[in-house]
Design a protein that fits this description.
Order of helices and strands: HEEHHH
Number of helices: 4
Structural class: mainly alpha
Strand content: 5-15%
Oligomer: single chain
Low-confidence stretches: none
Distance between the termini: 34 Å
Helix content: 40-55%
Shape: flat
Mean pLDDT: 84
Length: 135
């Protein structure tokens, strides 16, 4: 709950897939409930799913593919992939709705401005009209 605000990203969704290394900064012997943990490193750009490593193309395995993942790991890999996919769609859907709302507000302000420039500056009026439009 403190990481995103500390990164000045409080209003942003957390990255879809990331890892971080936490370091216990408490002196040895500190009771667990009083321990202070700090983030030592974030990785948001190249996070891997270890159970998928067999499917990664390398110099030694130039033809690696999904079928190279161990059968015992495939169910878990699909669960993780499906979860990440659902989360990605939720984030994209939310962003698309926000963009549409922003476009609608801009259009409304243009209409109000054509009637009277002062109306376009009235945020309360614009918000009430947007709410009325939705009802």
């Amino acid at each position: 709950a403190k990481i995103m605000p500390a990164l000045v990203l409080a209003e942003e969704p957390i990255p879809l897939w990331w890892t971080s290394d936490f370091i216990n900064a408490s002196p040895p012997g500190t009771p667990e409930k009083d321990e202070k943990w700090i983030v030592g490193e974030f990785n948001c750009s190249c996070v891997g799913i270890s159970k998928c490593l067999a499917a990664c193309i390398t110099d030694d395995a130039p033809n690696a593919c999904f079928s190279d993942i161990a059968k015992k790991d495939v169910v878990e890999v699909r669960k993780i992939g499906s979860l990440v996919g659902r989360k990605a769609l939720t984030i994209l859907d939310k962003a698309q709705r926000a963009a549409k709302a922003s476009d609608a507000m801009d259009s409304l302000k243009l209409i109000l401005k054509s009637a009277d420039p002062k109306l376009a500056e009235d945020e309360t009026l614009a918000k009430k009209l947007m709410e009325w439009k939705r009802s």
